[in-house]
Amino acid sequence: MIDIDLVVIGGNTAGLSLAAEAQEAGLPRVLVLERSSTVTPHEAVGRYRLDVRYLVEITAITSEADFVVLQTNDGAILSRAVAYAEVPAGRPVRPGYSIPESIVDQIQVGEMGLPDGPIDVLVVGGGEQAIEFAEKATERGDQVVLALTGSADRLSRLARETLTTLEMGRHATIFWHTQPNGIDDVGGHPMAIFEDRRTPDLQFDHVVYSLGLDVADDAFAQRNTTVDVTNGRLFLLQDIEEHISHPAGRLVPAGNAWSTLRDLVFSELPAPIPLPTVDRAEELRTRHYNATITHFEKAHSDLWLIRVKPDVGDASHRAGQYATLGLGYWEARIDAAADPIDQERQEKLVRRSYSISSPILDTTGYLVDPHETEDLEFYIVLVPPSDNRVPALTPRLALKDVGDRIYLGPRITGRYTLAPVQDPGSTVVFLATGTGEAPHNAMITELLRKGHHGPIVSVVTVRNLSDLAYSDTHRRLEARYPNYRYVALPTREPGVPKRYIQELIDSGELAKVSGTDLTPATTQVFLCGNPAMIGPPEWDGDNPVFPQPRGAVEALFDLGFKPDRRGHPGTVHFEEYW
Question: Rounded mean pLDDT of 348-362?
Answer without folding.
Answer: 93
